[in-house]
Write a structure and sequence with these properties.
Largest sheet: none
Order of helices and strands: HHHHHHHHH
Strand content: under 5%
Distance between the termini: 21 Å
Structural class: mainly alpha
Length: 213
């Protein structure tokens, strides 16, 4: 997909995000659901995280990353936080799976940024790379559950579903993220075996070419 088209898709995702967020504000004010109004304010900030990181690090834009970030925050913050979609069966697990995929992609970028090279000198080095990206993904998934547990302990906000599900919610959340990371790992292994790029590989390859290589 050409850069101009990707840019238009990104702008379109921003517009779609804003329209839905305005609806969320209006609906929650009308129903006097002030907790969700507060979550709508949070949803104003979350799509700014990735562009802010790019700005602070002086990285050139990769629109695929911007678009995926908007899509994820749209469902996680606008629908999940501001419109209470987390009560829908399976919604939370889909988001944790998606987050695992995105975090593993970020771990690939982090690895190449540290190494300053995307070539592997041996199978052993490639194995270390695969272990690294999955370890980062699982660590982030665990840290998120620590955060939810802290919300329960310090603010009595049971976003970890402790009183209704016990450890089941935390374990399945981390499992979904882990499975996603393994799935992306499979795509990466196939790429290095047959040399055929795909959408998921293109994201970190393009980032490397523009900002590291």
């Amino acid at each position: 997909m050409q850069e101009k088209t990707l840019k238009k898709v990104w702008y379109g995702s921003i517009l779609f995000y804003i329209v839905t967020l305005i609806f969320a504000f209006g609906y929650n004010l009308y129903t006097e659901n002030y907790h969700s109004v507060g979550m709508a304010f949070v949803a104003v900030l979350t799509p700014c995280i990735v562009p802010l990181i790019f700005k602070l690090c002086h990285w050139r834009i990769v629109y695929e990353i911007y678009i995926l970030s908007n899509v994820f925050t749209y469902f996680a913050s606008v629908w999940g936080g501001a419109l209470n979609a987390y009560r829908l069966y399976g919604f939370d697990k889909i988001l944790h799976f998606s987050s695992g995929w995105l975090i593993t992609t970020a771990a690939v970028i982090l690895y190449f940024a540290i190494k300053r090279d995307r070539k592997f000198q041996s199978k052993r080095e490639f194995t270390i790379f695969l272990i690294f990206i999955n370890a980062v993904n699982m660590a982030v998934a665990q840290l998120w559950e620590f955060y939810e547990y802290a919300m329960l302990i310090f603010f009595k906000n049971d976003c970890i579903n402790h009183y209704t599900q016990g450890v089941h919610d935390s374990i399945t959340d981390m499992l979904c993220a882990t499975v996603a990371g393994i799935g992306l790992t499979a795509f990466i292994v196939l790429y290095y075996k047959n040399g055929r790029r795909n959408f998921f590989v293109n994201i970190y390859e393009k980032f490397y070419e523009r900002n590291i290589g």
